[in-house]
Specification:
- It contains 15 helices and 17 strands.
- The strands form five sheets. A seven-stranded mixed β-sheet has the order 4-10-9-8-7-5-6, with helices on both faces.
- It has about 425 residues and is of the alpha/beta class.
- The N terminus is likely disordered.
- Helix content is about 40%, strand content about 15%.
- It is globular and about 70 Å long.
- It has two domains: about 170 residues, Aspartate Aminotransferase, domain 1 (Alpha-Beta Complex), CATH 3.90.1150; about 260 residues, Aspartate Aminotransferase, domain 2 (3-Layer(aba) Sandwich), CATH 3.40.640.10.
- Strand 8, helix 9 and strand 9 form a beta-alpha-beta unit.
């Protein structure tokens, strides 16, 4: 099996997946990262829900926000508010500098070559739609193929359905195995010189599976395909280096990496972005406008029409500062041990079925119980102050492949603890008692 990228780490808490899976190992790593102090930086983790301390295990939907982000956004509105890229007064110039400094932070965080390869979007969904509309649709024709996988979130499926319908290209879907891995025995059948785009998730939001992104990218490039990676479920859990992966596009959402909602990251290789037409038009994305002709701005600004989500960008910068302060290798090591511990504890609950592989996995544990519907599980857990997700998780084709209408999903972040895992297991035993 191909190892995830972070196994190559020369720093951080772990050198690979053989770290101990026991409670003792998780507690050791928690002390190393200063988990108690880290948790105190998230105000919401101190609240009570239905008379119980909040146990927040819905991080795949959105993560909670550190105080440093809240302070940064408050400071922006109270002391720095202006528009960017347009004014020549003090506030606008200073804020424009801060705004563009965040672009530099993002570039460094994901290992892009230059700042102009970073486009700010509303999130992963808009990033994929931008690529589909501005890159794929003008280039694809009948006989071409778009390859996705059975793991995809609807955001990385529906845009490609639309592109296929409009262009005449064929949409193909790479199968998965019964244990939740991509079935790479079919890769030569599905990836050919007809494949013009290969769009796939780094980490499944249902299965937690970490896909071998470098190998998939290499295989796609060998047949001339362009690679788009949905990094929404990876960026807060694993070190990401787009140059090492060599993907052509990478998209992610700020709110899944401890940042604000409504802000996202689109990375694209500069030569490709330069050839693309704008996704939207209007102010801030032009160099010169005449009544009969417009010259667009250079990348990345030609893709950022209108007044941007300045608050979101400022908050995203603080979120990256937070992630860097902990260290992505530390985060991946701690979460790997925590999720492994949770996986083993879940197996203690009678009648439970965990969806997806034991490893390589990060962040997510989806499961069913033979005595209760996922919605009932979620409701009982909510009475105990535990927030999980129940449903199809915007991945209905995957659910159909698994033969399930829905799953319950506990998803983890750097601030979660073994004590919270234990509370989850205790609550699931309560579900069993009520419905079993």
């Amino acid at each position: 099996m191909i190892e995830p990228l972070y196994i190559k780490s020369r720093e951080g808490l772990s050198t690979g997946p053989n770290i101990g899976k026991s409670r003792t190992a998780v507690e050791y790593l928690a002390r190393k990262i200063g988990l108690e102090t880290l948790r105190s930086n998230f105000p919401i983790l101190g609240i009570s829900v239905r008379g119980k301390p909040l146990v927040y295990l819905d991080n795949a939907a959105t993560t909670q926000k550190p105080q440093m982000l809240i302070d940064a956004v408050n400071r922006y509105y109270s002391r720095e508010n202006a528009n960017v890229h347009r004014g020549i007064h003090y506030l606008s110039e200073k804020l424009t500098d801060r705004y563009e400094e965040v672009r530099t932070k993002v570039r460094g965080f994901i290992g892009a070559k230059v700042d102009c390869e970073i486009v700010f979007t509303k999130g992963t969904t808009e990033g994929i739609n931008l690529i589909a509309s501005s890159f794929a649709l003008p280039r694809l024709k009948q006989g071409d193929e778009i390859l996705v996988t059975y793991m995809e979130h609807h955001s990385n499926l529906i845009p490609w359905q639309i592109v296929a319908q409009k262009s005449g290209a064929k949409l193909r879907v790479l199968p998965i195995t019964d244990d939740g891995l991509l079935d790479l025995s079919y890769i030569d059948e599905f990836l050919s010189d007809r494949t013009k785009i290969f769009a796939f998730t780094y980490v499944s939001n249902v299965l937690g599976t970490i896909n071998p992104v470098r190998d998939l990218t290499k295989r796609a490039h060998e047949v001339g395909a362009v690679v788009i990676i949905d990094g929404a479920q990876a960026i807060a859990h694993l070190p990401v280096n787009v140059q090492e992966i060599d993907c052509d596009f990478f998209v992610a959402s700020g709110h899944k990496m401890y940042g604000p909602t409504g802000i996202g990251i689109l990375y694209g290789k500069a030569p490709i972005l330069s050839e693309m037409e704008p996704y939207q038009t209007g102010g801030s994305m032009i160099l010169n406008v005449k009544l009969d002709n417009t010259i667009y701005a250079h990348i990345p600004h030609k893709f950022e029409a209108g007044t941007p989500n300045i608050e979101g960008v400022i908050g995203l910068g603080s979120a990256i500062d937070f992630l860097n302060s902990v260290g992505m290798y530390n985060i991946s090591a701690y979460e790997e041990a925590l999720v492994s511990y949770a996986y083993q504890r879940l197996l203690e609950v009678p009648g439970i079925n965990i969806v997806g592989p034991f490893e390589p996995r990060t962040g997510v544990l989806s499961f069913t119980m033979d005595c209760a519907h996922p919605h009932d599980i979620s409701q009982i857990l909510d009475e105990e102050g535990i927030a999980i997700r129940a449903g199809h998780h915007c991945a209905q084709p995957l659910m159909e492949r698994l033969g399930l209408p829905a799953t319950a999903r506990a998803s983890f972040a750097i601030y979660n603890s073994v004590e919270e895992v234990d509370l989850l297991i205790k609550a699931l035993h309560k579900v069993r008692k009520i419905f079993g």
